[in-house]
Amino acid sequence: MEERKASLGLTRRVHSGRSAEEALKGVDLNRNIEALIENPLSHLTPEQLQRDVRAFARSNGLHEHLELLERAAQIAKDPHYFESVPGVTDREKVALGDERHRSFRQPRALYLTIIICSIGAAVQGWDQTGSNGA
Q1: Disulfide-capable partner of 57 in 51, 62, 107, 127 (CB 3.0 to 4.6 Å)?
Q2: Residue 58's pLDDT band (boundaries 50, 70, 90)?
Q3: pLDDT value, residue 4
Q4: Please, what is the Cα angle at 94 between 89 and 97, to 5 degrees?
């Protein structure tokens, strides 16, 4: 497993016994010129991750979504290997694969809305500039 994580190109590994706050104490954020940020879930053991997810669900009244939250946390811990997470449905695998390989696949209506709003904003700016006498 450590071999897979080394291939992600992260600057350093956080050992499983340390908390995220302890790990960040040794990081000089002014020298991180590549702007690489450690996955905050990568240092958690499966037991710690499950305990944290259950605490989150309990504190936010999300008991009915606990199974989904646990799968999502496992995927977020190691997103490059989402297909190996137990319980992920075929539909979820397709959606996660599409998100990775075709991240800009959106409905045409969304693109049309963005274009129309952009044109409207440009026209409004021109009108405002003209009325201000600039």
Answers
A1: 62
A2: very high
A3: 41
A4: 120
